[in-house]
Write a structure and sequence with these properties.
It contains 24 helices and 13 strands. The chain is mostly helical and 552 residues long. Helix 9 crosses helix 10.
């Protein structure tokens, strides 16, 4: 673990949860997996404070726990979830995404769960003051909660969510071994682990949304009676059918289980952010119209994509992509079709009718699909020629492309465009000596040697030693230069984490230097206006506000 990473996690936890919780996190970061007794003894905290701090961290999915033996006793061990702590920096991005896709009411529900951690729907109602809502707002609330669950912005908590994947695997393996009468052979152990892995893959690919009640539709009456599944698996009718016009609203209200607790599904939100970044890449490379078509493709892949670990998407029909493009999209001038013989003969429909508009939109969408398919990035692939074709998104290739683009941007900001040229040369050619680097990058030998040493010191380039003789004398070795994506990412992360930590430290120092003034400005009499701040104090607060705004 980087020192910068540990320092940043501590600052994030202190800013969000306070110094007591930070003390527990700092110990878990330093020592790793610990029991409650070890945490209390090493931090010197009161047992109640330690338990409450762990409860807060578990509720926000920052700490996982698992049971294990310590001597003759069964103990509960706690470990930190670094990835979720670092996601605290994306809170603003997540909230903006929820507002964009879920509206104002969806944003309120999402924010309540993000602030309070794991919550039930009834708990969200209490936080938002559901009893004071009007009839329309209550319906909006029910629809927003159902939409958040269906699109997996929030996910139901299960018994295994607070346990790490390794612990779950070990527990499942131990249960399978207990079923055997004798010690497992190596072949049986391999089969057990394969079955466990297949079961986890099956659960991952399942489309069942946990936390939703099942509902049966009464076709004869046109209504949908409210039905829940009983403990024995039999349907239990809760109420009578209702009018068809009210079916959607009441169904949304009854489908979500009020007693089920939900948490933010960070992996799913990261998928949305990644898709937005891919669309922005094509908007910068081509135009906004190409981004519109790509957004339509990515929207169709989202229901089957739960996390960013999926390498490729499922195939999507071209006709389905075109139908998913908004009718308001302006694609008329997206592609120059003057060189296409078909468009020379038929042209585009210039009429103002809806049919003419749809025909023009379809022609341009198909043309843009062909442009995206032929793009050198290899992100959009055509996998089937039947009909208008089937298309697939290569997420693995998109991740590599966006990573290289980010690294090039960091090198450009830290050094110069000449350094970027050298890095791209090494990335394309791999393992070159100084002469070949200078020739490929069109630089003098002395200059290329200087740039290579600067990149090596920063962690963006590396060398491979090839001995010419058996004694491995340095003077008789060939040194080949190359770039390692893993080392480049590590160097970039160290710099980024250190920069973010320095910014947060600067904000804390500025606030601490004016702590007395900030406390005075928050007093009740000052807020009410009975006591006024002096002009100097007001100017100091304005300077603090501008500094925080610049830092943010």
């Amino acid at each position: 673990m980087f020192t910068q990473l540990e320092d940043l996690c501590r600052r994030l936890v202190r800013n969000h949860y306070g110094p007591i919780v930070e003390k527990v996190v700092a110990l878990l970061l330093e020592e790793g997996r610990l029991s409650l007794g070890r945490i209390i003894s090493q931090t010197g905290m009161e047992p109640t404070s330690a338990r409450q701090a762990l409860a807060v961290l578990i509720q926000h999915s920052h700490v996982t726990h698992a049971q294990g033996k310590e001597g003759a006793r069964m103990m509960t061990f706690y470990s930190i979830n670094l990835r979720n702590i670092l996601r605290l920096q994306r809170a603003g991005l997540y909230l903006a995404l929820a507002e964009e896709r879920m509206g104002a009411m969806g944003l309120s529900v999402f924010r309540a769960i993000m602030i309070n951690g794991c919550m039930s729907v009834s708990g969200v109602r209490d936080v938002l003051g559901y009893k004071k809502f009007g009839t329309a707002d209550k319906q909006k609330f029910s629809i927003a909660v159902a939409k958040l669950v269906r699109e997996r912005f929030i996910t139901a908590i299960t018994a295994t969510d607070t346990v790490t994947k390794v612990d779950r695997f070990m527990q499942a393996e131990a249960k399978e071994i207990e079923k055997l009468t004798t010690a497992p052979t190596p072949k049986e152990l391999v089969n057990i682990r394969r079955r466990i892995s297949d079961k986890e893959d099956e659960e991952y690919t399942s489309n069942i949304v946990v936390g939703m009640k099942r509902q049966m539709t009464d076709v004869s009456t046109g209504g949908a009676p409210k039905v829940m599944i009983g403990p024995n698996g039999q349907p239990i009718v809760i109420g009578n059918g209702f009018e068809a016009g009210q079916q959607d609203q009441d169904a949304d209200e009854d489908l979500v289980d009020d007693k089920q607790c939900f948490q933010i599904y960070h992996e799913r939100l990261d998928v949305f952010l990644r898709n937005k970044r891919i669309a922005n890449y094509f908007a910068e490379k081509y135009n906004d119209e190409a981004s519109v078509v790509l957004k339509a493709i990515l929207r169709l892949t989202e229901p089957r994509t739960k996390t960013c670990k999926d390498k490729v998407s499922e195939s999507i029909a071209a006709q389905q992509i075109v139908q998913n493009i908004s009718s308001d999209a302006q694609l008329d001038q997206a592609v120059d079709m003057s060189g296409d013989p078909y468009f020379k003969e038929n042209g585009t429909d210039s009429g103002s009718s809806t049919a003419a508009r749809k025909a023009t939109l379809g022609k341009m969408a198909f043309a843009l699909l062909d442009v995206l398919r032929r793009d050198g990035s290899g992100i959009i692939n055509k996998v089937d020629e039947r009909g208008a074709g089937q298309y697939r998104v290569n997420f693995e290739r998109a991740a590599i492309l966006l990573r290289d683009e980010c690294l090039d941007s960091l090198v450009l900001n830290k050094f110069s465009s000449t350094h970027v040229r050298v890095v791209r040369t090494l990335r394309d050619k791999q393992k070159l000596d100084e002469k070949l680097v200078s020739q490929a990058a069109m630089l003098p030998l002395a200059r290329s040697r200087e740039l290579l040493h600067e990149l090596t010191l920063a962690g963006f380039a590396d060398t491979v030693e090839i001995p010419r003789t058996a004694d491995r004398n340095p003077s008789r070795m060939v040194y080949l230069w190359h770039v390692s994506p893993q080392k480049q990412v590590s160097a970039a992360l160290r710099g980024a984490l250190q920069g973010i930590s320095n910014i947060m430290q600067r904000a804390d120092q500025e606030t601490l230097a004016r702590a007395a003034l900030v406390a005075k400005s928050q007093r009740a009499d000052v807020v009410a206006g009975t006591t006024h701040l002096t002009p100097g104090e007001q100017a100091s607060l304005q300077v603090l506000g501008k500094l925080k705004q610049q830092i943010d």
